[in-house]
Amino acid sequence: MQTATPAARKMPRPRADALRNRERIVTAAREMFVEFGPEVPLDEIARRAGVGNATVYRNFPDRDALVREVVCSVMDRTVRAAEQALNESGDAFEALERFAHTAADERISALCPMVSSTFDRNHPDLEDARRRAERLVAQLMDRAKAAGQLRADVEYGDLMVGVAQLSRPPAGTGCLNADRFVHRHLQLFLDGMRAPAPTVLPGTAVTVEDLRR
């Protein structure tokens, strides 16, 4: 007599409303990390997301889990923007500019407070996303340098630190008010990266290794 093989159990797929709530939490957290830093109270994030505290903790058991999800989300968006820019034909510096403005819109400045955070920056998910972003952005910059359009004395860190700082509201100012000036000031910064360079920059180029220290 043959014994019937039990059918493999299928894991239930998350409901659409549960997925929407998770995305709302991550979006709210990304915005509030930019405005107030990663120590913003989780109940404030829940309030902005329009969900209850229990929903936040059901998706993210602690602050580190939420911070990590926000960082991965921002890095993934940055990767997609870099991939799209690399796939574009035409002017290499214009592609770099489009990437930088998109990165600003994606709130890459949310990554700034994470540098001093106590969460695990060497988590495998973070390492993978970070390395992909570094590789793609470096390719964008190398292409612009090869075309003679990007000054030779700048590196990955110079671009990314500049974009992050310019897309983060100054302390004590309203985020929505500061948003009005982001792309104007970012373009001024990008124009300063064009070759030929009219001046010599103080110090040395900021590399990937500098950012990891």
UniProtKB/TrEMBL annotation:
Origin superkingdom: Bacteria
GO molecular function: DNA-binding transcription factor activity; transcription cis-regulatory region binding
Keyword terms, alphabetized: DNA-binding, Transcription, Transcription regulation
Keyword Transcription assigned: yes
InterPro entries registered for this protein in UniProt: Homeodomain-like_sf, HTH-type_TetR-like_transc_reg, HTH_TetR, Tet_transcr_reg_TetR-rel_C_sf, TetR_SbtR-like_C
Pfam families assigned: TetR_C_43, TetR_N
Family annotation (PANTHER family): HTH-TYPE TRANSCRIPTIONAL REGULATOR BETI, HTH-TYPE TRANSCRIPTIONAL REGULATOR RUTR
Protein name, entry field: AcrR family transcriptional regulator
